[in-house]
Specification:
Layout lengths: L5 H13 L6 E6 L5 H17 L2 E6 L3 H9 L5 E5 H9 L12 E17 L14 E5 L5 H11 L9 E5 L2 H10 L5 E4 L3 H9 L2 E3 L6 H10 L4 E5 L12 E13 L4 H13 L1 H7 L22 H10 L6
Parallel strand pairs: 1-2, 1-3, 5-6
Antiparallel strand pairs: 3-10, 4-7, 4-8, 4-10, 9-10
Helix pairs in contact: 2-9, 2-10, 5-8, 6-7, 9-11
């Protein structure tokens, strides 16, 4: 794997990490504008700045891989990242095979996160099985996570890429534009994303209801163990989501480096734990956050000592 940020690590990481909990500027990496993760990251940055005085600069990357590399190699101190991607990076799987990102550490498991398969509202596609032979994005050169997400949801209907009429795409935003343009019959996206509001206004959209059976759940988890099927209530900001729909769920996490200043990470963890109302005011998705669940354990991924110290003081560290 290329390490594009390795040359920045020594000077930049040292400067950031040595500053401790004093007023400073740090970076947090995320996906590009138009993704819901970008908006959620802006909310975290806003609350951290208000509560600590630290300036949190957002840096956007087209893929989770690049976003996590930014933390590993010192271009960013934090990343707002899904637990499935953190898991494969730390384990050295998929695009990280033979080259794991071993210094990544959890600060918090922030909230459950849902994605689904989206079609036009007037489409004759009403189930995963109906996707057989339909035009569906493949390739995902700029967003490798799209492969795992797609295969996991298709598997709930007994499908995989060979069952589809594959249309090459690079990333989520490009695929969404292709759905709007009529190039695709379906694609995948996170619910509540600004891009989904845009598409709903332009063409009308609908998220498919995934089959909620033990067999479907097992097929999904076989792709990545972090993936689950979960119900979702309708809400005004969740364009295309019908009440009681079943979607794919995993978790969003805040990660840092193992050598980040312990006192500073402690303060950031404390802000997140006490900041639910402020975070909700910045974006409604934080309504799914349970402060007492921020320390939920993730397979093979360690928490940073600064976060562990706070969770122990708060009485919510699972190991105690």
């Amino acid at each position: 794997m290329n390490r594009p940020f390795a040359t920045l690590a020594a000077g930049l990481a040292a400067a950031v990490l040595a500053a401790g909990a004093q007023a400073q500027t740090v970076s947090i990496s995320t996906l590009p504008p138009g993704s819901v993760n970008n908006v959620q990251t802006q909310a975290i940055a806003k609350v951290v700045q208000e509560q600590t005085g630290a300036q949190m600069r957002i840096v956007a990357f087209n893929s989770p891989e690049a976003s996590m590399q930014a933390v590993e190699f010192g271009e960013a101190l934090f990343s707002f990242m899904s637990n499935d991607e953190v898991g494969v990076a730390v384990r050295g799987l998929d695009g990280f095979e033979g080259d794991p990102l071993e210094s990544l550490r959890l600060v918090a498991t922030v909230f459950p996160f849902k994605v689904g398969i989206v079609v036009r509202a007037d489409s004759d596609i009403h189930s995963v099985e109906d996707l057989r032979g339909k035009r569906f994005p493949v390739g995902w050169d700029g967003f490798p996570q799209g492969i795992a997400l797609s295969r996991a949801m298709l598997a709930t209907g007994g499908l995989d890429f060979p069952d589809m009429q594959g249309v090459p795409t690079t990333n989520l935003l490009r695929a969404a534009d292709d759905l709007r343009a009529g190039v695709l019959d379906a694609t995948l996206f996170a619910i509540g994303a600004p891009k989904m509001a845009e598409l709903d206004a332009a063409i009308g959209i609908r998220f498919l209801d995934l089959p909620n059976t033990p067999e479907a759940a097992e097929a999904m988890a076989a792709i990545r163990p972090e993936y689950h099927i979960a119900p979702q209530a309708a809400a005004p900001h969740l364009h295309g989501v019908a009440d009681g729909s079943h979607l794919m769920q995993y978790a969003m996490t805040l990660i840092t480096r193992e050598d980040a200043d312990e006192d500073f990470i402690y303060e950031i963890t404390k802000v997140l734990h006490g900041g639910r109302d402020d975070l909700m005011a910045a974006h409604p998705s934080f309504g799914a956050m349970n402060p007492d669940h921020l320390s939920v354990q993730q397979d093979d991924v360690l928490y940073h000592p600064g976060a562990v110290r706070f969770y122990r003081e708060a009485g919510i560290w699972p190991a105690d």
